[in-house]
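Q: C-alpha cells for this one, please.
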Amino acid sequence: MDKQKKSLMDRVTDFTNKISGPLGKFANTDIISSIVAGLVSVTPIIMIGSIFLILYVLGSPDVGTSGKPLIGFLAPWAVKFAWMNSLTMNMMSLYCAVAIPYHYAQKKKMNTLTCSLLGLATFLIFTINGYDEAGGISVMSFSASGLFVCIITSIVGVQILKFFLDRNITIKMPDSVPPNIGNAFGALLPYATIFALAWLVRTVMNFDMVTWLNTILEPIITLSDSLWMAMLVSFICLLLWSVGLHGDNMFLALFTPFGLTWVDQNASALASGVSKYDLPNVLAGLGNTGLLRLTIWTAAVWPLLLLMILSKKKQFRTVGLTALAPGLFTIVEPVIYGLPIALNPYLMIPFILSGTISTGIGYLLMSTSFMGKFYAVVPWATPPFLLGPLGTGDVKTALIPIISFVVGLVIYLPFWKVYNQSLDVAEQQETNEQAEIG
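A: Here is the predicted structure, written as C-alpha cells:
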C-alpha cells in the first residue's frame, strides 16, 4: 500500500537516492578522484594541442578533397602545427603519469614530488616498445593508447611506495640531513623494487602491457561509443542533477578516460588523412567536451531560460535574466537551484527527458557522414553553437544545439503550463487565507 501511495516524484527521488549513494562513494574514492583530478590537470595541455590541430586542419592541403588549404597563408606552417599537436595532445599519457601520482600522493599525504617522479619513471619502463636500429625510442604509448596503463602504474606505484614507507623499509638518514636529501635516500629501496618489477615484466618477460590491455579493453571501449550508452549517460547525469546532486562531477567525469582516448583516436585519424566526417568515434571528448555538451543543456536548460524571460511572473523573469549569461556558457546551477529544477515535481521529468532525447538525436546526426566528429578538446564552458564548429571543424554541428533547444522547448511547454497553474492556485489560496485572517 505504501508503494502505491507514493507519487511519481517520490519514486524518482527514491531511485536516485539508491544510485547516488554508491555513485558518490565510488567517485569520491581516493583512486577515482585522483585519476579524475590528474586528467583535469593535463586538460590545458590537451586543449593547446587541440588548437594546434585546428590550425593544422586549416592550413593543410591534405585535409579534405580539394587539395588546397582552407587558409592559404597557414600552409607553410601546417607540418609544424602537427608537431606541436604531437608534443602535447599525443603525449597525454606521459603528462598524466606525473599528474595522477601527484594527486594520489596528496590523498595519501605523501611527498608529491617523490610520487610524481616514481609514476613517470615506472610508466616509461612499462611502456617502452623497444629500441630501433638508430637507437631511438618509440613513443607510441605516450598517446591515449597508454592512458589505462598510465593509470594502473600511477596508482600501484604509489601504493607500493606507501607500503614501504608505512613499514619503515627505507634507508634512514641522520636528523642533521636536510629533508629533501632524506626523502631522496628514503625512496631508494621502494624505487629500486618498483623499477625492478617493471623491468622484469616489460623486458625479461617481454610483456607489452599497453598492447595487452588495449586488446582487452577494445571491445568495451568500442561498445561504449553507442547511441544507447550516450542516452544512458545523459539520463543518469540529469537524474542526479534533478535531485540537487552534481551529475557532471559524480558521474559524467568518470567517462573522461574514454572520451580522451576517443578524441585522440579521431585526431590521429584526421592527421592521417581521414575526413572529419568519417572519424571513428562519435562520443569523442565525453566527460569534458564533445556531443553531450551540444545537447544536454541546450535542451534541458535553455528552453527554461526563454520561458522564464517571457513569463508574466516577476520572480521568473528575474531568475531568467540573471541566469541568461551563465546559461549561454552552460553554467546551469543558477537555473537548476534558482528556479528551481531540483526536486521540482513539475519540471524534473521534462528536464530529464529533454536532455536524454536530444542526446539521442544528436548522436544519430553526428554518427552519419553529414556532420563532422570531435577531434579537438574545447573548453567545456564554450557556448555550444561555437563548441561544435571549433571541436569538429564543421559549421553544421551548430545545428545540433538548435535542434536540441527546439526539442526541449516542445517537451517543456505542457509541463511549464501546469507548473504555472499550480503556482497561480497556490498564490490564490494564500491570498484567500490572508483575507480571512484580515
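A few notes: The chain has a mean pLDDT of 86. The CA atoms of residues 303 and 380 lie 20 Å apart.
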